[in-house]
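CORE FACILITY INTAKE
Project code: CF-77B
Contact: R.S. (postdoc)
Sample description: multi-component assembly, two entities in total
Requested service: structural model of the whole complex
Turnaround: standard
Below are the sequence entries exactly as provided by the requester. Do not edit them.
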Amino acid sequence: MTTTKVIVGLGSCGIAAGAGKTYEKIKALKDSENLGFELKKTSCVGMCYREPLVEIIDETGSYLYGDVDEARAIEVIQKHINQHEPVKDYIVYTDLFPAAESDYMDSQVKIVLRNCGYMDPESIEEYELREGYKAIRKIADEKIMHEAVIRTILDSGLRGRGGGGFPTGLKWKLAYGNKSEEKYVICNADEGDPGAFMDRSILEGDPHAVLEGMIIAAYAIEATGGVIYCRAEYPLAIKRLNIALDQARKKGYLGKNIFGIAGFHFDIYIKEGAGAFVCGEETALMASIEGERGMPRKRPPFPAASGLWKKPTNINNVETYANVPWIILNGATAYAKYGTEKSKGTKVFALAGKVKRSGLVEVPMGMTLKDVIFKLGGGIKNDKRFKAVQMGGPSGGCIPEFLAHTIVDYDSVTATGAIMGSGGMVVMDETTCMVDVAKFFLDFTQKESCGKCTFCRIGTKRMLEILDRITKGEGKAGDIEKLEELSHQIKENSLCGLGQTAPNPVLTTLKYFRDEYEAHITAKRCPAKVCKPLLTYTVIPENCTGCMVCARNCPSNAITGEKKQVHLIHQELCIKCGACFTKCKFSAILVE
Amino acid sequence: MRISRIYKKHEEEIVAEVDLSRLDHLIEKYRHKKGNVIPLLQGAQEIFGYIPPIVFEKISAECGIKLSDMYGVATFYAQFRLKPVGKLIIKVCHGTACHVQNANEITEAIEEGLKIKDGETTEDGLFTLESVACLGCCSLAPVMMIADQTYGKLTGTEAVKIIKNIRIAESKLN
């Protein structure tokens, strides 16, 4: 009989949801009652909205339990382990029968996330049991030449998953073609887009896959050194990467003559970022590794010719590398079977915002946005109306509801004015103000502009000032045109991707939600009721019980009224802080 | 808002108490490595919680890095702090997902609860409040991080309650 396994999901999201406590509780139960199951750890399986997740694998099959707090953990262990009776109400996914989240899991194609949530990320043995390091072994055993490896990646149609979408094989080919004693492979793990957490999950859940991808790239381009540039905001990812690196070194998978390939010397070190969004741009990233201010450099020369320390360098992001071992093992054709004509394979998306199921999904390219948001994401929270989806972070844009049939591939998303980006999908509903969203992103890019180019440094500042005025009710005729003019100038005259794409959030919202801008400027109204200075607060007499809570909480003493009498908000004194609305228990405050 | 990077004059007296010998190990490790400015500054901040002026001078003298280069790097990256911060940093996430789910309310509630503004430190030196871009826990939005612990699906009231409990736990430690 096989031992029953109890596996707790301990990714950042799981831990934040209390999975650490759940794990400790189960461990305590196991120890005190001397229970005969194996307790294991894994990372995030993508179902972040159901964390903490606990999977039980027994001789009948696999059962994934959701929302397992300490109380539920006790119940599940007692019933499932002790009495052999799975607790059906808490099962979110199983391969035995349809469960609450079956459609979420079954609509996905897991290539990049093949191991995330299915193994202990801190165990190299478990990675190897799941075909880990088999791809590089295949290359070594079958003596596959550099050109052939590059050809496979080219044929697979894999494009850079960091957002640019440049063909990965071509990048490798260029780097391979530039001969040098020293060459570098860099993994861009500086996932800075707010609203994106794909790379974090991959690094936390399957660090060895990224290392293997880098080793293969290093072999292909004949690199001598590797660097993973990871955000310092991801402590768990860095910890697991360090564990993975140590394990790989001990096994001789990093070092001299690795995998028995004579002359293939390669090692990787981690470089922690220091908090600068612009370092996601490849030339800025390399400047940062070199210990300088992370300011972009002019291209050409491209990194493939002159990159880190002026040596030929190949730089890809986390997700791109995680694809590589799978492609080498299964072949270019198997990979290219998924996707559209120009965008092959799968893409991982971080679904977040006003969507019911917020988490990580991997879907074949070509799926419609509507399917991703409604079929996988389960639709909008509290059944509000879907308004737009933001893709590509500060470099991307908002795709409106009427374009929800857009398919996810690089070219279709770009045609809407947004970009595929690294995979952040922030869903917005009718209560999201698009002018406020545009302001939010401009505020971000303005702060993160490195200051090298005037258009980016000052242009974004001027745009932010205009947006700030508009959201405060001080917008004036000509503001929209000024925003458009500045946008085009910044796009045309900035050196790097950050500046060239910074106006996208404004341009897309202007394109699809111009009426909202006009309502703010002309009617001094915020249709989504977000911009506080544009709102008026009044008491609904029928609902007011005269409890006096609003009056007591009003910081500007703008509310008067006797006990048990209808209260009144004096508009000339109201500072529009919204305290009365939040405090009122009887829905007696009307916001317009 | 990022934490202010400009020194106030009277703080230069405080930094006189910095024990520079604690830097020796760090300097030995990185002295001859290329691209060592950022790891040196990160290491120094790890030791002191921020980077005092005399630490710049010491590293500069030992490693032969120009002061201006180091200052340039330190002021470029959001991570580096040039003045002391509280024992625990409260990082309130203002990423996109948190923003559309009312992250402002969390910051405002903490500002009110701790009587400090964004970027400031409480009088007892326990907490510093900081807004950050994205913690990558978008599915639990809105979130905040205190030390290495992330708290999700917050409301303003809950955030303040969590902080109160930490303060109680901390006072028991002392």
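Facility notes:
- The mean pLDDT of chain B is 88.
- DSSP finds eight helices and four strands in chain B.
Invoice: internal transfer
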